[in-house]
Amino acid sequence: MKNARTALGVGAAVAGALLLAAPSALAVEPQTATIGFDCGSWGAGEATLEATQDGTAATITITTDAITAPIPIGANSASSTLTLTRNGTDTVEFSGSSNPAIPAGAPADTGPLDGTVASGDSLEATSLTVSVLGITATCEATTPQSPGPFVFE
Fold it and tell me: pTM here?
């Protein structure tokens, strides 16, 4: 009986040590933000940005009514690049060619766009470029990102 209690106690101590040593999940705050975009002749409106982080890899998915599809757009046929200011000094780009199918007249939905981040990076969107079938829409931010920049752990 004493050996069983000792083994149980040692097992609990090892499990506790493993839990303390396990890496914590990284997170970005806020996970969702909004920003205004002016896309020239394509229109203007608000975009919702959703960010995730896995180590140094990060993704941002964008839905915006600033650009609407003039014709049906097939899945994975839009190339997009989101440019963000990093820590108020330089820029970083998130890009990708992943999008759901978008019916004619529907708002643009693109991403996830992939990028690389470092712990402590503070990123705020400044522009978005979306290319479909050789046609490119360039959007410039018209409002600050709300509730604020994405901050990565």
Answer: 0.81
